[in-house]
Fold this sequence. Notes:
25% strand, globular, Class I SAM-dependent methyltransferase, methyltransferase, Rossmann fold, 207 residues
Amino acid sequence: MTSSASFWDKAAPKYATSAISDMEGYRATLERTIAHLSPTDRVLELGCGTASTALELAGHVAHITATDISGAMVEIGRGKVAEAGVDNITLHTGVAGDPEVAEGAPFDAILALNLLHLLPNQTEALAQIHDMLKPGGVFISKTACLGERWFFKPLVSVMALFGKAPYVTHQRVAALRTAIAAAGFETLEETTQPGTPPRLYMVARRV
């Protein structure tokens, strides 16, 4: 599972200080995610950014392994975790296929929030996520479906030429739903959050 580490390393300082653009949607995502977690759960978060969500969830689970492809993001996240005095979050730089990331498997839950649309090898990533979950474990994702708005593809292509955008997929909601099912997951809950682009929030069980 790969993405542009250098792009996100450069973006990390600004990303860490930027306000969440859709706080209502973010809070709704946290609320629904917490409802599917338990105090004994061992959780893996892929694409953790600067650990903001891991910090929000840490009090609801036993342990979170939080990972990101960007070393700069992870270093900022470590500082935030240390400052908060939280001792049940472990941060790693890496992706799902890396031994250091997978060493805690199998997990009770795996999170990929605002990540799947950034992956050029989504099918492989979903297979790895399936393999790292316990049977019956939950995969919780939230994904921007850029394919639902025709203008994103030319816009993002131009931005990428100037180094202003990372790799993204232009997937539609139905295609993403099909991909997750094909990887061996049964949907427990899904919501398409409105916006430009819409975001598919899904909770799925490994079968």
